[in-house]
Amino acid sequence: MSMVFDHVTLGQRVLFGSGRAADNLAAEVDRLGAERVMVIAGRSELTVAQKITRKIDVAIYHDDVAPHVPIANADRARAVTTEHRIDLLVCIGGGSTTGLAKAVALTTGLPIVAIPTTYAGSEATNVWGITESARKTTGVDNSVLPETVIYDATLTLSLPVNLSAASGLNAVAHCIDSMWAPRADPINRALAGEGIRSLAAGLPVVKNDPNDLAGREQALYGAYLSAVAFASAGSGLHHKVCHVLGGAYNLPHAETHATVLPYVLAFNAPAAPEAESRIAVAFGSTTAISGLNTLRDTLNAPRALKDYDLHEDSIPEAVALILPVVPDSNPRPVNAADLEELLRAAYTGDTSAW
Ligand code: NAD
Fold it and tell me: Quick one: which atom of ligand 1 is closest to the CA of 158?
């Protein structure tokens, strides 16, 4: 088969090393010549942020972080950057914190150094999201791509086991969806395969012992690969389903991804044999779905959308919202009845027919 593809690799510096975040940050601030640094970190992330920033001058710490980046929070943060003549944003935290830094970069053009503490992966994408009047708008803009990402697995040690599992499965979802997303190609599929392998190796270790640094490093490395694959391949069916559910019904991000993923995989796998085989190999399993389900069982993953305040009555509306945004690239045609069946199964957590 001939190989024809059009691939874009986003330019970004990645510094990876446990226990090195403070030194790496100081070196980056120096290299970038920044003099007025704003550190963005949520209230629960502030202690760790103060530790990491001890070797740099900080103009202001900003902790006004909320899930899904409400526009009011973005506007307040933007005003602070003007008031304090900020020339560099440093964000330390999960996807919500990175998201706020991106919203500021979008209108100010300020560079970002991102120091992630979950496996969400926003730090490696040029995708931004802002919520206004209960509607989340997302967009793609290279100005929001962090200049540098500093990974330090010691910062993830405090991430509770259940959140580590859900967040890690969010990263697995980036990988699996990258196999059939609109811009899937041999490069991002290779990154996605290595991402699955690394996450499937690291997450069970984290579950068994949350303080095992080697397991945390594997998971963080896999999360980075998953985000690079996702940024390049774009949103597939799984991300479209989760985006609608998260936006319209305010469901928690990582848990929604962790719950919906096996249904999308089971739906698409028969129509995508090459992707199925790559995913199975990456899991070291006989089939893709058994590999994913084994990992989910090991992690005691979130099971049912009804546990996250989705009302069964909302399913027909959700189907109507998802249907028009199903990517043309999806390997299997999707109709309203398919989506209804998928969402009803994810709602109850019943995988028996999948
Ligand atoms: P989050 O950032 O909301 O964090 C979840 C919770 O974990 C928060 O309470 C946070 O304070 C806490 N936390 C974070 N790190 C911790 C640590 N090391 N120890 C203890 N507690 C910690 O959730 P998330 O799943 O990281 O990110 C979800 C958000 O990111 C969503 O808004 C999603 O849309 C966005 N996202 C964006 C992209 C993108 O490419 N733009 C990609 C993935 C996710």
Answer: 19
Residue 118 CA to ligand 1 center (angstroms) comes to 6
Atom number of ligand 1 nearest to Cα 43: 11
Give the position, in ligand 1's atom list, of the atom nearest the Cα of 96: 2
Digit-coded pLDDT (tens) for 136-155? 889 999 999 999 999 999 99
Cβ(127) – ligand 1 distance below 6 Å: yes
Residue closest via CA to ligand 1's atom 6 equals: 94
Tell me the C-alpha distance between 206 and 188, whole Å: 26
161-348 in CATH: which number?
1.20.1090.10
β-strand pairing of 127-132 with 135-140:
antiparallel
| Interacting residues of 121 by C-beta distance below 8 A, sequence separation 6+ | 95, 170, 171, 174, 223, 224, 226, 227, 230
C-alpha 229 to ligand 1 mean position (Å): 19
- Out of 3.40.30.10, 3.40.1160.10, 3.40.50.1970, 3.30.110.30, select the CATH number for domain 13-156: 3.40.50.1970
pTM of the predicted protein model = 0.97
**Domain assignments of the chain as residue spans, ordered by start:** 13-156, 161-348
Q: pLDDT at position 133, please? A: 84
